[in-house]
Design goal:
Strand content: 15-25%
Number of strands: 7
Number of helices: 6
Oligomer: single chain
Largest sheet: 7 strands, antiparallel
Order of helices and strands: HHHHHEHEEEEEE
Radius of gyration: 16 Å
């Protein structure tokens, strides 16, 4: 399975880049992952592998980053992935590349997200302004709260009355990516 991008049109990619640039333009130094790139899907894949104990240490994480970058460059367009991100199905291909049996759930319910987050899962979030992001979540045994393992600046995720919040801001969760045991 190759990498599929949001749009084949360079105009559409450029328009998305400009919109994201305007949102990111207010970000101050020091820069972090996501400020200058759109690699949160790769970081989420690596973070989920770490959370599951399949990657230990920064050296192994760096090797995995290189492997996934090589995978993207061979099956897609690395430049476009860095500057515009990936399509929603590509997270599943990243997980499969890591050796996991993975499944994408569209418009997942709160219950489905909690069920699959017990062993860690990746969710795709989007807010009303168009900002989108991939992150890792886990529901710890005996807990009702969801833990967030994010590569960007976010620190808290919650759901109230069926509405998701990331650091207090409302987001929708269009997709859930789970490792199927």
């Amino acid at each position: 399975m190759g990498i599929n991008f949001e749009s084949d049109s360079k105009v559409d990619v450029h328009a998305r880049y400009l919109k994201d640039y305007e949102m990111k333009n207010s970000i101050a130094f020091p820069f972090q992952q996501g400020d200058l790139d759109w690699l949160c899907s790769i970081y989420a894949t690596i973070n989920l592998s770490c959370l599951r104990g399949d990657i230990v240490g920064v050296e192994a994480a760096g090797e995995t980053f290189n492997e996934l970058s090589t995978y993207v460059s061979k099956s897609g367009d690395l430049y476009q992935t860095i500057t515009a991100g990936v399509r929603r199905g590509d997270v599943t291909s990243f997980l499969r590349e890591r050796g996991y049996k993975a499944k994408k759930f569209s418009k997942p319910s709160q219950e489905l997200i909690r069920e699959h987050s017990r062993n860690g899962a990746i969710i795709y979030l989007r807010n009303a302004e168009g900002f989108d992001h991939y992150t890792v979540i886990r529901t710890a045994a005996g807990s009702t709260g969801i833990e967030l393992y994010d590569s960007y600046r976010f620190s808290e995720i919650s759901c109230r009355d069926g509405v998701w919040f990331l650091d207090g801001e409302e987001f929708e969760v269009p997709n859930l990516y789970a490792v199927i045991e």
